[in-house]
Amino acid sequence: MTSRTAREDDEARERAAIAERAAAAGAAVADAAFRTGIDTETKDGKTDVVTQADRDAQAEVVRVIRDAFPDEAVVGEEGDELESVPEAGPAWVVDPIDGTNNFVRDIRIWTTSVAAVVDGVPVAAATVLPALGDTYTAGPEGVWRNGEAAAVSRRTDPETFAVCPTIWWDYDRREEYAVATREIVERFGDLRRLGSAQAALAMVAAGHLEAAVTNVVPNPWDTVAGVRMVRQAGGTVTDVDGDPWHHDSRGLVASNGKAHDEVLAAVREIEAARRGE
């Protein structure tokens, strides 16, 4: 592995600072609308919801990014931003409200997440949960929660693990969802479903959960920031085949790295259900 240069680290620190500033600004906009009875719209399905708060928060995040880096690409869930991560050059990946279903139900677990990528690889990230008062950040030196150093859980016994099935299995894929639930409760200590992939990944990075898993192909705005955090915190992130995760990988298997093969085995059973095996 090629070692990073001092210049690259300085650039990553600058991007981490902007990511945190942008995520905080967007989170403040979203939080001002939280629990105010905001109207809800649907996009591609009955549970794929969006609000004006999503759009307003993304606009604020993008404003902060472009004040600092006016010529860089932005990938975002809402509006007219790109929908895929460029493979060359710098870019930003934005989710203004990850966990909108929680947001509209007045549940506090939702995030504003921002990641910086260079040549398709995440180099900095920030995830803010304003309703919980938590901010997770990742730069070249590590991961922090509310300014204090964080790291993945040290648990090694899968029977003590708390594992989160994440990303949504739609109605035509509920057998996979059922298998995910069964595999987790039979292999591990307990199951947590948070309703926000970025919250789950931040919590894996900070040691609150041992793993977060899906065999669904996730959107980059749901995952890139959290993947950076898990890796910087000492964890492991792969696709369903066990290869290093990339923003267009099938599935996502994030763990503290202490029993990743067992976590991966559970996800392979979900994949078997998808293939009808």
Based on CA atoms alone, the radius of gyration comes out at 18 Å
Write the H/E string, N to C.
Answer: HEEHEEHEEEEEEHEHEHEEH
Percent helix: 25-40%
Oligomeric state: single chain
CATH fold title of the largest domain: Fructose-1,6-Bisphosphatase, Chain A, domain 1
Based on secondary structure, the structural category is: alpha+beta
What is the total number of structural domains? 2
Taken from the alpha-carbon principal axes, the silhouette is globular
Output the CATH homologous superfamily of the largest domain: Fructose-1,6-Bisphosphatase, subunit A, domain 1
How many helical elements? 7
Please report the first level of CATH classification, the CATH class of the largest domain.
Alpha Beta
Q: Which consecutive residue ranges, at least 5 long each, have pLDDT under 50?
A: none
Query: What does the largest sheet look like?
Result: 7 strands, mixed
Average pLDDT works out at 94
In whole angstroms, how far apart are the ends? 38 Å
How are the strands of the biggest sheet laid out side by side?
Answer: 3-4-5-6-7-8-9
Second CATH tier, the architecture of the largest domain: 2-Layer Sandwich
Q: In percent, how much strand structure appears in the residues?
A: 15-25%
The total of beta strands comes to 14
